[in-house]
Each structure stands twice: as C-alpha cells, then as structure tokens.
Design brief:
Layout lengths: L1 H20 L3 H8 L1 E6 L2 E2 L3 E3 L5 E2 L1 H13 L2 E6 L5 H6 L5 E2 L7 H4 L2 E3 L4 E3 L1 E6 L18 E3 L5 H9 L4 E2 L5 H9 L5 E5 H10 L5 E4 L6 E3 L2 E3 L3 H16 L2 H10 L10
Parallel strand pairs: 1-5, 1-6, 10-11, 10-12
Antiparallel strand pairs: 2-3, 3-4, 7-15, 8-14, 9-12, 9-13
Helix pairs in contact: 3-10
Length: about 260
C-alpha cells in the first residue's frame, strides 16, 4: 500500500511539474499583471514613437485590446528588429508584436498566431526613375542600388528577387528612405502600409510610390515554440475582435484617417 501511495504521489508531482513547465506566455502575463510585448517602434502606422515619446499605432491598439481582455496592462519593450527573436527566446518579453511577417524560415524558430493583417512589399523610387522603373523586375540590374531595413522581409525580398542590384540596409526605415530622397539609392523596398505614409511624410516630393504589392505577407504575433495555449487564446481573441467591430474601428483609425500624423510632427 505504501509503495502504491508513493508511486501515486510521484505521479502527481510529475504531473504538476509538467503542467508548470507548460505554462505559457498568456498564463505568465495574467499572473504577472502585465503583457510584455517586444517591438521596434519605427514601423508606421503599426508601431511608432510620437513626439511625446509614447509608442502608438495600429498593432499597439490591437495589443492594448488584447491586454484589456486578459485584465492586465500592456508593457511594450523597445527592441532592435534584427535582435527581436533572440530577445524573445531569452525571456526579455512574452511575445513579438512588431509587424512581423510569418515566413517559413521564422516559423522554424517560432510559433505564430493567425495573421491579423496581410500586406505586401512595394517600392518607393527616385522621382527621376518614374517611367523607367515600373516594377521590381526593372530594378534587377547591377546599375541600381536598393535599400531597406535590416532583418526585415524588405531586405530578404530585395536580396532574393532583385539580387542583381546592389543592396545596403539600415537599422531603421527612415534612414533608408532618406537614402532614396537624397539620391544615394534608387529604391526603398518595404511593406505597403509604411510606404503609403512615407511617400508623403518623408518623400519631400522626390519619391514615387509604386503601389502594386509583389509579395504576399501575413503579419502575425510571434511566441516561443510549443506555446499552444497562448496561440489558442490569441487566435480566439482575433476572431472575436474581427466580428464585434473592434478590429474595424482600430483599422479605420490608422488606415482611413490621418489625425495620428499630427502626433508625429
């Protein structure tokens, strides 16, 4: 009898240990009272820093709604994009919410939620090239110089689909765009939502926006591999807000209105 009880207790102990090990990011956030999200706040209009030093944007508002549904506060953790996956894997925050494209390469290292929006790569080109450059294929020549943000799909696409052109990346989007504005680069390769804003905000009349996306890029939240409980919660949250009007309200605020631009001056 004693041996039986001893084995049963060992089994219960092991079960508790496994359950504790399986506690995911969402459970941890609820216990802590804060949802910590890693982001590089330079991606208009998804996450960016306003003139008061606050991080605002479309994705930020979605995450605020998510944190509210959990009964916790949102804590944004500014992280350079090219180091954001290692930072997640070393527990600097609970999840990545930084306009990250769900790629197969990244999916080997992370679990992803369902996409919360789908975008595609587009081009900002020097005004002098209008008519000469009609698509990304026209840039695939060693005489052209491309730029984008390091570690992004803009960089990946430039090197894969426009590989004959010279490439030089930057740590943030604004520096890369200014390279084209100043005539040091011929084109900036980046997501459509950013480029549609940047052409007017930073273009200074010197850029042309080629608006036809030439890639398919679902953006999603990234978590550590194996955290299926958290993925389940996030996916159900996304389904809820896409059917109760919350998603449309947030989307229209950032993509159909321009009031937020005043906060960036």
């Amino acid at each position: 009898m004693k041996k039986y009880l001893s084995r049963m207790l060992l089994g219960v102990t092991a079960l508790v240990a496994v359950s504790a090990a399986q506690a995911g990011a969402i459970d941890d956030a609820v216990k802590r009272g804060t949802l910590r999200v890693g982001m590089d706040p330079t991606y208009m209009p998804f996450e960016m820093t306003n003139k008061r030093g606050e991080i605002i944007g479309f994705e930020v508002d979605i995450l605020k709604a998510m944190a509210k549904s959990m009964g916790v506060k949102l804590e944004t953790v500014s992280t350079a994009y090219d180091g954001i996956i290692p930072a997640l894997l070393t527990d600097k925050f609970d999840m990545i919410g930084s306009g990250m494209t769900l790629t197969q390469e990244r999916n080997l290292r992370l679990n992803f939620s369902e996409p919360f929006i789908v975008v595609g790569q587009t081009l900002l080109i020097r005004k002098e090239l209008q008519g000469e450059i009609k698509s990304y294929k026209d840039l695939n020549d060693e005489k052209y110089r491309l730029t984008s943000k390091l570690g992004t799909t803009g960089e990946m696409v430039a090197k894969k689909l426009i590989s004959k052109a010279k490439y030089h990346g930057y740590d943030n989007e604004q520096e890369a765009v200014m390279d084209v504005v100043n005539g040091k680069a011929d084109a900036f390769v980046y997501d459509a939502p950013y480029n549609v804003v940047a052409v007017n905000k930073a273009g200074a009349g010197k850029l042309v926006y080629l608006e036809e996306p030439f890639t398919y890029e679902p953006l999603a939240f990234g978590l550590k591999k194996g955290d299926y409980d958290s993925i389940n919660f996030i996916n159900n949250f996304l389904h809820q807000i896409k059917h109760d009007g919350t998603y449309d309200r947030i989307h229209d605020k950032w993509f159909k209105k321009t009031d937020w631009l005043k906060e960036m001056e």
